[in-house]
Amino acid sequence: MVAACLKYRATVGQGDSRQGDASLAWLNQFMKTDQAGDDAIRAGGEFLVYLLMPADVSHELSVRFHVTRRLKNGQIGKGRQTDMHNLAESYLSPAYASEIDRQIGRLIKLQDTPFWNNRDYTLKGETGFLALSKMLQSGRCFWQDTRRPALQAGAPRTLQLDWQEAGRGSRRLRLKLDIPALLLNTLPVLYLDQEAGTLGPVEGADFNEKQWEMLLAAPLVPADVLPDFSQQLLLKGTHCPLPPPLEIETLEIRDQPPLHLLYLYSERDSELPFPEHRIRLRYAYDGHETRVLPDDAVHKQLSGNRLITVHRDKAAEKDTQQRLFDAGFHAYLDEQQGDMIFGHDEQTDQLGVVSCWQHFLEEILPDLQAEGWQVEHDADFQMQFVAIDNWDVDIEADNDWFDLRFDLDIEGRKLPLLPFITELLTSYEPNSLQEPSTCHWETASI
Predict the structure, then answer these.
(1) Strands 339-343 and 330-334, sheet pairing
(2) By three-state DSSP, how is residue 226 classified?
(3) In the chain, what are the domain boundaries?
(4) Cα-flanking dihedrals φ and ψ of residue 81, to 5°?
(5) Beta carbons within 10 angstroms of residue 377's beta carbon
(6) What pTM did the predictor assign?
């Protein structure tokens, strides 16, 4: 029994020892991961280094591949330049290439630069960012030569945009960092500080690849173009952090109810016997007219040399539209003019159109005006409803035939009845004639 207990204790101790050895080995390997880039140098023999060079294009870098080894004095030798046509392939890569070197080779291969017979490879865009990140991680990335220490990861720096005088009143966009360094054409944006020997990220450069490339090559803005350039930038660049080169007067309108603006007008179509009547809806905030489109909560517009920013009451605008829908109109959006237009579609018969317009003009519109809505009538909008003062009937007999004529006496003028009932006679179907008080159409809103 004693022997069995002693054997059990020895077995448990060996198990604990083996588990302890495994955990310590894991910890040792984990602590080395941030030094993995030095493995090729520490192992002895030849290894690759990456020499960053200024490219022919401003804000771009190129990279050269050098095969070298550590000298007896501990320094890294100059080595020899090599190309990378086999570096990207695992089964063809040379012995001095590590896995991270092959990853870098595959990224470089994705660049648009020619691959064969070219030993300077451009680094730009997204693939340039990834390749530079891998080079930095390898611990074998240098600025121009190996006499300087390898580049280190730098702390984030902040992008600053402003305009500087460029002679004759013109302005040029200036991109700089809070701590000066070379901005690179990568995405995300990186900087290179040659003096400090650091490569790091840039904050505040939230642009897409094309925008960043264009900002780095922004043209000179002549003096006579500055006002228009500044206005258009503020008007269209709602989410753009680019400041205007000229200071523009601005007015911001908040917490103001909209004034509803109705414009009644008519349109004539040669194929239709009657003009089509329309209502155009707009709003005014503190006296500044605002169109329905674009349907943004914040609307910007120019008034002379002043930029007006209106924070719209979208709920109140929606209620306005619904009032017109409830009156029996449907709406369409004039995207070119930015307006919402109310009227009737082609499927609505003329009698239904007339009935709804009469109800709107005689009963609804006066209430809206009493609430403060502003209503303007175009000169061509001549729809009105008047009472008939008298009827005249004229009968002319001729042998077995007779002519029957009805005339209406309207405000002292005699008008024939037949043109007024032509539409009724044309569209009449038994048991389907709509009552004047009932008119319902599908409506759509934004």
Answers:
(1) antiparallel
(2) helix
(3) 39-153, 157-223
(4) -80, 145
(5) 13
(6) 0.66
